[in-house]
Model the fold of this input.
Amino acid sequence: MTIQQIEQATPLNHVAIIMDGNGRWAEGRGLPRLAGHHAGTGNIKRIVREAIKLGIPYLTLYAFSTENWNRPTWEVRGLMRIMAEYLDRELRELHVEGVHLRLLGDLEGVDDHLAQKIRDAIALTSSNTAITLAVAFNYGGRADILRAVREIVAEGLNPAEITDEMITRHLYTAGMPDPDLIVRTSGEQRLSNFLIWQAAYSEYFMTPLLWPDFGPDQFREAITSFAQRDRRFGARPAEQEA
Ligand code: IPE
Ligand code: IPE
Ligand code: MG
Done:
């Protein structure tokens, strides 16, 4: 399928990726797990570039879940360090390429130094328009919904006034379209608390490839697969009516 055909097919506004399998990638090479996380961050650039080339307006990457704090301390610390080093190394280039960074998640509990780097990165790139890159970091779908509910309750509304749209507006993804396509690498077939509200009608593409091995060609393959899906959103075309 050509890019033109891809674009003409089912509209694709938002791709979200569960970047999984870094640990297994490293273990398979006899390397420490952190080497896998390092290789995983190295893969981000080529996928972001491909997404820009394909004209995808929103890309979300699941980088660290609220449950990932339950990993051994050395791994959590290593992941935080790799995140900070990633920003030091790549932020300038992301900015030059027109990437608008957004955070999905909470900086509460994140080391001050890293939290400040993330805030600075968001501020630096806030006027960029080539693509919105939302990084789900310290993100959990349940925490996302819980926070939205708390904010709505704090506004003192009548229960009947609470709408689907209002909840959507209070989520970390406020203003973003729901993900059309959710990609997960490493063969696992689960959401792992990723965008559980927003994924109501997402299409899925699960691949056995480990995240560091998932390149632009495989990304295109996921999009080609998406373009062939028949999305019905629970409805039926009018001509099928009795
Ligand atoms: C994904 O790789 C990155 C994070 C969850 C932070 P994993 O570390 O989960 O890799 P596997 O699943 O153990 O191979
Ligand atoms: C999901 O992967 C979180 C990220 C990719 C950041 P996990 O490796 O944490 O998920 P589980 O534990 O296999 O469900
Ligand atoms: Mg994993």
In short: The helical segments are 3-8, 22-27, 33-53, 73-96, 112-124, 141-154, 164-170, 216-227. The chain is about 45% helix and 15% strand. The chain has a mean pLDDT of 95. Residues 42 and 166 are 37 Å apart (CA to CA).
